[in-house]
Amino acid sequence: MKKYVLLMVMFIAVFAVQAQSDSKGAVMTFKEKSIDFGDITQGDKVEHVFVFENTGDTPLVISNVAVTCGCTAPSWPRQPVAPGATAELKVVFNSAGKMGKQNSVVRIYSNASEPIERVSLISNVKPKA
Questions:
Q1: Closest Cα partner for 95 from 49, 30, 37, 28?
Q2: CA atoms of 99 and 42, how far apart (whole Å)
Q3: Where are the domains of the chain?
Q4: Which of 37, 45, 52, 49 is nearest to 90 (CA)?
Q5: Residue 52: exposure state from Cβ atoms within 10 A (0-12, 13-18, ≥19)
Q6: Distance between CA 20 and CA 112 in Å, rounded?
Q7: Fold of 25-126
Q8: Which strands, in side-by-side order, build the sheet including 62-67?
Q9: In the sheet where 28-30 sits, what is the strand order?
């Protein structure tokens, strides 16, 4: 009888560990991670909305969004994104004082399985006529 009880306890423990390992947590999946605006004129402001989905099985919480310079301004959801739900990350790039090829990288910090994601705005800033 003791062996039977011990065997049942071990079976339950293995099952519980397996159930925990099947959870993939929050997963941030973007429709696109980069947008190229091509040539823009110095002083122009361009913006893009990056749409993402939480394809995981726990709520996605964005803790911070960091940019490479003050020329880029992000706006992101402050509330958790439920599994299966979509949300938006809006990014605005101000080309004032910039010239030539620009690649504004935005880093998104979250509780996702990949804790740091990156999206970027690419442009080629031309001088005003």
A1: 37
A2: 7
A3: 25-126
A4: 49
A5: buried
A6: 16
A7: Immunoglobulin-like (2.60.40)
A8: 34-41, 116-126, 100-110, 62-67
A9: 28-30, 45-54, 86-94, 72-75
pTM: 0.80
Tell me the pLDDT tens digit for each residue of 18-29.
445 567 899 999
**For 63-97, what is each residue's pLDDT tens digit?**
999 998 999 999 999 999 999 999 999 999 999 99
**String of DSSP letters for the chain:** -HHHHHHHHHHHHHHHHHHHHH---B-EEES-SEEEEEEEETT-EEEEEEEEEE-SSS-B-EEEEEESSTTEEEE---SPBPTT-EEEEEEEEE-TT--EEEEEEEEEEESBSSSEEEEEEEEEEEPP-
